[in-house]
Amino acid sequence: MVHEALTEIRRPELGNLDVGAEADVAVLRVEKGAFGLLDSAQARLTGTTRIITEMTLRKGAVVYDLNGLGSEDWQRFSYRKGPFFKK
Hints:
The protein is mainly beta. It has one helix at 2-8, and strands at 25-38, 44-58, 61-65. It has a 3-stranded antiparallel β-sheet with strand order 1-2-3, with no helix packed on it.
């Protein structure tokens, strides 16, 4: 299904999972609760489910990370490194 859609828009290189292909990935989380959802006219509808973007990777690199999932834990992080610290 995806292949046919990408061929139709003449972008067959998108949606490719071959070894060596660029990796663009969205990590999503489904939340349950009471949420205000706005339509294009800014009218509100109360919903019970929403999808949150946790992390986005572009070409294999993290470009958005809502909760630091791609970062090292603070207890293991070596703070004494980089150009701002004297050796």
